[in-house]
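Preliminary data (for renewal application), cytidine-5'-monophosphate complex.
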Amino acid sequence: MSVTVRVPAKVNAQLAVGAARPDGFHDLANVFLAVGLYDEVTVTEADELRVTCAGPDAGEVPLDRTNLAARAALVLAGRYGRSPDVHIHIAKDIPVAGGMAGGSADGAGALVACDALWGTNASRDELLDICAELGSDVPFSLVGGAALGTGRGEKLSPLEVGGTFHWVFAMADGGLSTPAVFREFDRLAEGTDVPEPVASEDLLAALEKGDTAALAAALSNDLQPAALSLRPSLADTLAAGREAGALAGLVSGSGPTTAFLVADAESAYSVAERLRTSGTCRSVRTASAPAPGVTLL
Ligand code: C5P
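Predicted structure:
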């Protein structure tokens, strides 16, 4: 028997980052938006825990127990005192180490799929609790839609979204390490007073109204200077997207994927075409938001 789930990527419409906490994490005001780029995770009974992955970037995905999907199976099995022996197959479409929560998506997906396969029937709260243990962005991958994440990003409040937003994503060569980007944020912030992170009222209102122009004006990412410092060429991609007709562009999460908000589906197509020929990125995708969270197929 096997179970397959579909899990979306995310973009951060706002990522406000506070000063480093004593535990090394940063308090955030993180406005997550799930976008319609998906990984599919299939779990099948097996003699031992193993992970396989297919897709254009499959070679970059770790297949050992550091993979969040494997860790999800281990944590759930541990809590229910059962064997974690399962074959987890990831059909990967979300960019790897791209700032779009691809690893988190696989963790949330494997958790829900194992819960269904094993009949452990964990409550939603317990699943969210395990997600938070796996990583700061994992709970959002489970719930999808749009949500404000506070704490280190794992405490979620759902947000109303009054329309569909169209995005173009430019994938860069190679990934960026999230801890390295946060370290660079700390280095750039040295000697300054980092304000408490707060969600932008204008941004939340724009989401609620489905107002694309207002959302474009309110997008922000406090990690962007750090990502640009580590990867200066991303400035060329951002400029190319704006020249191509995007309403706004920003680094997605810790990068290096860049995200462009566009007026409508036609504009997404033309901006994507122009970005593809700009020579400033590896590949380009279009997707709309919000997308649902983990879905059993
Ligand atoms: O929670 P997660 O394991 O995804 O975080 C990866 C790394 O990103 C952390 O080890 C930390 O360096 C950084 N991080 C942070 N503050 C957050 C979330 C992540 O500093 N709120």
